[in-house]
Amino acid sequence: MKISINKSFATLTFAFVLVLNALVAEPFQPNWQSLSEQKLPDWLKDAKFGVYTHWGVYSVPAHGGPDYVKNLYGGPEKDVKGVYSYHTEKYGPVKDFGYKDFIPMFTAPKFNADEWVGLMHEAGAKFGGICLVHHDGFLLWDSEYSKWNSKNMGPKRDIYGEIAQAVRQFDDMKLLATFHHGRSFGYARSWAKGDWVTDEIRNGWDLFDPQYADFYRGDQTGEAPENFGSEWVGKITEVIDTYQPDAIWFDGLRQAMKHKHPSEPQVLETIAHYFNQAKENGQEVTIMNKHAKEFNFPDTFGLLSHENGRDMREDVEPWFLIDRAIAYPWSYVNDKRYRDGADYHTKSLIDLVSRGGVFLLSLTPKGDGSIAAEEQEIMCGIGKWLKQNGESIYRTRPWKIFGEGPTKLTHFNEEKRHIDWDFRQEFSPKDIRFTTKGDTLYATALAWPENGRIVIKSLKKDSEYRSAKIRSVELIGSPALLKWTRTAEGLEIELPKEKPNAIAYAFRIN
Predict the structure, then answer these.
(1) N- or C-end of the chain: fewer Cβ atoms within 10 A?
(2) pLDDT value for 310
(3) What's the rounded Cα separation, in Å, for the pair 306 and 52?
């Protein structure tokens, strides 16, 4: 009998330990099935619009874009974007002045985190941040994993720490962290290959100097991808634990993971840590990763992201994100041209939101840390429209259809074999985009009709999309009482003489 009692006690004890282990186990495990259980947070679905920056060492020479380091060491053989020619003419031979030599020049005397984030907030962004590290591998935070960081050299400031503090001052903003450095391994040496790379170049350029191998990373120096991958984990984890971003966005991980820098298990462990830390802190977070033909994360996980709609399906469904530079290239360059104004970016936002999308816009600050007057003007223009019409954007959800109208935004790129989206189309007053919130339907016309009359065909009497009885129709931003009627043609609205703004016209339909 005594033995039986002991066995029973042992069985109960073992069962209790199993239950206890289950209770204390981390809720997210490092596999896609477990991580896919982290749903997109409502704050992101409500936010619609975020802003970040492309700014770093490459902003100092201000030529070609953030791929300056790769193009520079492509040498005279390629001279992509004229970077090598520009560099040698302005700074001298590469053997005397390499990419690393821009870092002491990257002092950023005009950088002001409050001004940057204040501009993002003024534009109506509900989440914001910066690119913490681009493909060149220079970190814009105080890191223990690399001496090549903004706290240790260059500005000698914790740039992201200051940005994070500035974002947290706004109750209606969330913090974003974006990373490109999965592709840093071997990036600077991408084109430094071939017969043109002479012994003189190998012995003279800093790219091949062993003392800078911890900056110009790659297997050419004998470094193993696994070593770089482990450091990648450390860096991402360091940002997660120190700054607690609400969202993380990755660029180039498909290519990096293919070559195991970082490996898939390392990525899974890092994301699981992020989700578990957030859960412990009561924080709702998500991961965004840019699609690149072969998406390296399952579609069930995180927020599918596309560069300005590249490779995005024509019949895209909620939820997704597109990112875009406020003007190209992705970073500030000398004599930068601003092809598109606030109207282009705002109409893009309206269209994306109607489809269940989120818009992420990148600023391109100058090397000294200031933001060009043209970019400030564009941001203020977006913000002015959103201040008036934000109720048709924020906290809305897609309607039964995204919109109506004749203007087609997509075409198939035969050369590149993918779908391209062109938001520069000239819209007509027949182009309408829908969103909804509770009992209210918002219909936004992307142009103003010369005849002073809007017809929303989807709301005609016999439409398959007809809703409940319409009680009222108002033009947001206008005090005028509108005359409207619902006919077999559509919801016909007579417009006031005065336009409420110069971009797009949102109707509140109750």
Answers:
(1) N
(2) 84
(3) 15
> What residue type is 132 in one-letter code?
L
Contact in structure between 423 and 346 (CB atoms under 8 Å):
no
What gap in Å lies between CA 428 and CA 431, rounded to an integer?
Answer: 5
| DSSP class per residue in 253-297 | HHHHHHTTTT-HHHHHHHHHHHHHHHHHHT---EEEEE--SS-SS
Quick one: tokens of 116? Answer: 């940057």
| Cβ-Cβ contacts under 8 Å for 301 (sequence gap 6 or more) | 32, 35, 36, 38, 287
Cβ atoms within 10 A of the Cβ of 452, count? Answer: 12
* Segment 161-189 mean pLDDT: 96
C-alpha closest to that of 214 among 268, 122, 139: 139
Tell me if the bond preceding 319 is cis, omega within 30° of 0: yes
Q: Are 134 and 249 contacting, i.e. CB atoms less than 8 angstroms apart?
A: no
Q: What is the pLDDT of residues 209-249, one digit of tens each?
A: 999 999 999 987 788 999 999 999 999 999 999 999 999 99
Residue 240 CA: distances (Å) to CA of 132, 175, 177, 184, 244: 12, 11, 9, 20, 5
Mean pLDDT, the chain, rounded, equals 92
Q: How far apart are CA 102 and CA 278, in angstroms?
A: 37
- Would you state the torsion angle of the CA atoms of residues 267, 268, 271, 272, taken in this order, to the nearest 10 degrees? -150
Question: Between helices 264-281 and 225-243, what is the axis angle to 10°?
Answer: 10
Structure token pair of residue 296: 């390296």
Which of these, 210, 216, 245, 243, lies nearest to 228 by C-alpha position? Answer: 216
pLDDT in tens, 36-51: 999 999 999 999 999 9
Q: What is the CA radius of gyration of the chain?
A: 26
387: Cβ–Cβ under 8 A, 6 or more apart, which residues? 124
| β-strand partners of 179 | 133, 250
* pTM exceeding 0.85: yes
Res 10 pLDDT > 70: no
CA-to-CA distance for 255 and 187, rounded, in angstroms? 11
CA–CA gap between residue 37 and residue 55 (Å, rounded)? 34
CA distance 453 to 473: 14
3-class SS of residue 311: coil
Which H helix or E strand runs over 16? Answer: helix 2-24
Q: What pLDDT, on the 0 to 100 scale, is given for residue 292?
A: 52
| Helix/strand/coil (H/E/C) assignment for every residue in 40-108 | CCHHHHHHCEEEEECCCHHHCCCCCCCCHHHHHCCHHHHCHHHHHHHHHHHHCCCCCCCHHHHHHHCCC
Q: Which of 250, 369, 381, 382 shows the shortest CA–CA distance to 304?
A: 250
Rounded distance, CA 498 to CA 136, Å? 51
